[in-house]
Amino acid sequence: MPERDDHQIDAFFSAARVSGRDEDVVLTGESYREHLYDHDDPVLAQWRGLGYDDFSARKREPAFVQELLADWQALYDEPFVGVTDHGAVRDDVHRLPEGTAGDLPPDAALLAAAARALATLTDDERARVQYPLDAPQWRAWSNPEFVIHRVGLRLEDLAPESADAVLDVVRASLSPEGWARVAETMALNGFLGELVDLPALMNERSYWFSLFGSPSPDEPWGWQLFGHHVAVCFVTVAGRHVVAPVFLGAEPALADGARPALFDARERTALDLASSLTAAQRDRAVVYRSVLDPAMPPGRLHPADERHVAGAFRDNRVVPYEGIGGADLTDAQWATLLRVVEDFHALLVAPQRAMTLQEVDAHRSETWFAWYGATDGSQPFYLRVHSPVVLAELDHHAGVWLSNRLPARFHVHTTLRLPNGNDYGRAYVAQHRARRRPPG
Questions:
Q1: Domain limits for position 216
Q2: Which end of the chain is more exposed for a tag (fewer CB within 10 A), N or C?
Q3: Quick check: 181 pLDDT over 70?
């Protein structure tokens, strides 16, 4: 392992990523390629020749990682409650319509895709991929490149036709643009593996897939896909779809100009909103003047999560509202904020997305928009949209496989949660079961 010094937490994580600084973190226009390690740098070379199991075992060895894992395991072991703003779950949100959801019959194409995927698997693989709907493994997802929990089947270990069939389930569940985003995020993981010459550790199929419940036109069921920079949880309940939690990110978030940066449209829309704020609005919306503002309280910066609060194992986090309220935005600014939220929900098929956005719009007076950093695009930034029905974040991070010690726009993490207990569709599933329960 590279020798640890006073500026490192471990071989990958520098103290600079969690240290407040009086100087602003200013974007310089540098390409991510200026932060590539040399091919034979020990940061990279120590992992060559390892498969993902051996790599993961060694990656978990340092004391810093052991402390992180212990903290995450304690959170994982908690009973599920859901993200809240003050510690108590509200039961007046995430209401499942009576009966089925209007004109939304069960998706025959999705059910057929699930049946095809199961048919391609061996008996042993089918046993390992399926869990009860309430299984705790829903909450075992994580986004590092090393394996914390083995859940379901790893795509790269499957026969190609089985892996393709599994991904067809994902494709059939999501909107075309949502599937394209997930597929591109996985492709960028493969691109990173090529950049650092570690394709055995990071590739387009270094992901775990599981089914929860039995694919059915009448009963709730879902699936989960997770791995480096990708975690997507999908549930269908009585005609409603839930896609949450979601974690999508990339380092780097673009492939040499071959396509726009992964979250380019979302970032541009968010900057349009931030730059439209009046001085008085900005005073409320901008919580910290930079992403490493020394005014942040102890513990606000996390060595792995940096600023985002709703990532892996944070299912029960209490996240107080901060920033500016939706009622204090103009109608035009609110419409721009809804476009940001819509992009977070892009994985939902269009009719489901429309229903979800109606719920977000209905809670305008309880919605908060928070921003860390300059509002003119000159700095990396963090944003959060938070209400009783949505918690969405975008954060710029320091390097892990790249050498930048300070946050940069080319390393992005995004999270999406449904506060008040509807992550993994839990609130909908509970209501569905209560309606099916015999009287008495």
A1: 97-253+426-436
A2: C
A3: yes
